[in-house]
Design brief:
Elements (H helix, E strand, L loop, with lengths): L6 E4 L2 E4 L13 E3 H8 L3 H9 L6 E3 L2 E5 H9 L4
Antiparallel strand pairs: 1-2, 3-5, 4-5
């Protein structure tokens, strides 16, 4: 069975969808708390505490708490945003 590859058209040509090789995947704009914890190697309670302490930016969108991916990167790399 061959797996179909879905792509989206973007300014730079085709942008692979889920299932594409990792080096060709898009970086998400936002992520949820469980995914942020997995990416950072931290517990979800630690992520929630960082949000509460104002050390990690987050927003509520359509009833969901999301974290800008760049905010998580900046925190983990010791950069200020």
């Amino acid at each position: 069975m061959t797996r179909a590859r879905l792509t989206l058209q973007g300014e730079g040509g085709e942008i692979p969808h889920r299932g594409a090789p990792a080096e060709r995947r898009l970086t998400p704009i936002t992520i949820n708390v469980p995914d942020a914890a997995k990416i950072a190697g931290l517990g979800q309670s630690t992520i929630w505490q960082l949000i509460k302490d104002g050390k990690l930016d987050s927003r509520k969108v359509a009833g969901r708490r999301v974290i800008p991916y760049r905010a998580l990167q900046a925190l983990m790399l010791g950069e200020s945003e």
